[in-house]
Amino acid sequence: MQENEYQILDIAGLLRRRSRIIGLTFLTITLASLVTAFSLTNLYRGSGTIMIERPEVSDAFRPGTYEAEDHEQRIARINDEVMTRDNLTEIVERHDLYRELRTDGLARSVVPELRSNFELDLFYADTDPRNKNLGAVTGFRLSYYHQDPLVARDVARDIVNLFQEGNRQRRQQDYLEVAAALGREADNLEAQVSQAEKELADFKS
User: Fold this and answer.
1) pTM of the model
2) At what angle do helices 149-204 and 71-82 cross, to 10 degrees?
3) CA-CA distance, 140 to 143, in Å (whole number)?
4) Closest listed residue to residue 166, CA positions, set 88, 55, 82
5) Exposure pattern of 94-104 as b/e (b: 16+ CB <10 Å)?
């Protein structure tokens, strides 16, 4: 029992002798934590969600060589088509982004910075096994991060508009391809009918 008391007294004495060092260490850690917390830049996220609509033209009416493109492939293709350097340079100039990071004052030079603050997240169908589209992409969210919440909102809106316009153009191209394919099928059918009528007339004569 006496030995335990000596141990406790020894520890207490050590803490008293080292109290200044312990206090300074604690104070240093606290100040470092506060400096780190206040030095971190607040980032705000602007985002927009796009849900994928079912195609208005059935695959049955598409050209015979047509291969259905899944939604994920379609989104990736539209992303490649609209997130071009020219389109992103225009957004940089419109919102005066990253002026302090530009090389020789060129907006084009900070396009990689814009890309690095952009995110695309896919949404998938529910895990309900009764859902025939189980696991299929049903939509996606486009997000942009910036220190200014209004800039984050406006840039995200512009990027969403780019995707919507790209999707509209691709759907329009699909309609034109289907119309052309149907026109060819109609011409082939008309030729077959004409040939059948000619053969029938020759047979009757």
Assistant:
1) 0.62
2) 120
3) 10
4) 82
5) ebebbeeeeee
CA dihedral 12, 15, 17, 23 (to 10 degrees): -150
CA distances (Å), 205 to each of 124, 195, 199, in order? 65, 15, 10
38 by Cβ neighbours in 10 Å (0-12 / 13-18 / 19+) ranks as exposed
What b/e readout covers 106-142, taking b as 16+ CB neighbours within 10 angstroms? Answer: ebeebbeebeebbeeeeeeeeeeeeeeeeeebebbbb
pLDDT digits over 48-102, tens only?
988 876 655 555 555 554 455 577 888 888 888 888 999 999 999 999 999 998 8
Look at the block and give the residue holding tokens 């470092």: 32
Q: Name the token pair of 187.
A: 């011409």
Structure tokens given for 74: 């379609």
Cα–Cα distance, 44 to 113 (Å, whole number): 16
Q: Is 127 helix (H, G, I), strand (E, B) or coil?
A: coil
Residue 180 and residue 178: Cα distance in Å, rounded?
A: 5
Contact yes or no for 142/159 (Cβ under 8 A) = yes
